[in-house]
Structures are given as structure tokens and as C-alpha cells.
Write a structure and sequence with these properties.
46% of the residues lie in helices and 29% in strands. By secondary structure, it is of the alpha+beta class. The protein has a single domain, classed as GMP Synthetase, Chain A, domain 3 (2-Layer Sandwich). Helix 1 crosses helix 2.
Length: 72
């Protein structure tokens, strides 16, 4: 599953790069994806919206086995 998550994150990254940020996959366990937002995303007040409204939504659409995405 880790490889599938990484493939989807690769599709999402250009949008994050456009704003000076990035996302790093930390772990995948029992449907929970742990990521680290880096660059401009790490300190951005909108990072929660990016995580839940963007990254989590897209991962769940592409991979129904994903239950939750959390920032670590």
C-alpha cells in the first residue's frame, strides 16, 4: 500500500511545489497515512486545510483503503 500512496502523492506534489511546499510520506499503517508537510507548508496556517481538504480527500478518492491522513 505504501507504493500506491507514494504514487498518489507524486500526483499531488506539483500543486504543493507551486506554493513552495512539499509532502513527505512517513508511514502507512492500518489505513492511516502519516505525512510530514515541509517547506512553506510546514508553518502555513492553511496547512490543516491542505492536509484534510486536499491530500486526505485525494488519497481517499484514489485509495478507498485509506481511512485517515495525519501530519506528524
Amino acid at each position: 500500500m505504501r507504493e500506491k500512496v507514494e504514487e498518489v502523492l507524486t500526483m499531488i506534489r506539483p500543486s504543493l511545489w507551486a506554493d513552495g511546499g512539499d509532502v513527505e510520506l512517513v508511514d502507512v499503517e492500518d489505513g492511516i497515512v502519516k505525512v510530514r508537510l515541509t517547506g512553506a507548508c510546514s508553518g502555513c496556517p492553511m496547512s490543516t486545510m491542505t492536509l484534510q481538504g486536499g491530500i486526505e480527500r485525494i488519497l481517499k478518492e484514489q485509495l478507498p483503503e485509506v481511512r485517515e491522513v495525519v501530519a506528524v
